[in-house]
Amino acid sequence: MFELSKQFRFDAAHTLDRSIQAESSRRIHGHSYRAEVTVRGRPDPVTGMVVDLGVLEQMIENARDALDHRFLDEINDLGPATMENLSRWIWDRLHPAIANLHRVSVFRDSSGETCTFWGEEVAA
Q: What are phi and psi of 74, to 5 degrees?
């Protein structure tokens, strides 16, 4: 089993309604984000690849372009611009085309924060 990851960066602004640090969070502010997309599987015996990196890069670029230098509050299907929602939003953009998507992590390196989404759990 192999895991293959690719990272990308984006900068974006947002507001956030929260109970702590409420005043500064409600004002428009921005962050530099780093995201990591990981696929998992066995290489195809013909191509030798877990995923075609060209396809993965194209899908990532589409997601990055939709987030980079944007006001996240205006992205209709994102919800509140939390790290949780960002990781799920990226997953939702990639998963239809990347069937062996394993996880999406969003990092705010300046504050040492990370959120990882592994997709929906299937109830037993």
A: -90, 0
Please tell me whether residue 39 adopts helix, strand or coil conformation. Answer: strand
Token pair for residue 115?
């959120």
Whether 29 contacts 13, CB under 8 Å: yes
- For residues 34 and 105, give the distance between their C-alpha atoms in angstroms, rounded to a whole number: 8
Backbone CA torsion sign across 107, 13, 10, 101: positive
Q: What is the DSSP letter of 63?
A: H
- How many angstroms separate the CA atoms of 29 and 24, rounded? 8
pLDDT tens per residue, range 70-119: 999 999 999 999 999 999 999 999 998 998 999 999 999 988 999 999 98
Query: Which pLDDT tens digit goes with each residue over 74-88?
Result: 999 999 999 999 999
> Residue 99 corresponds to which amino acid?
A
Distances (CA, A) of 118 to 11, 51, 71: 23, 18, 25
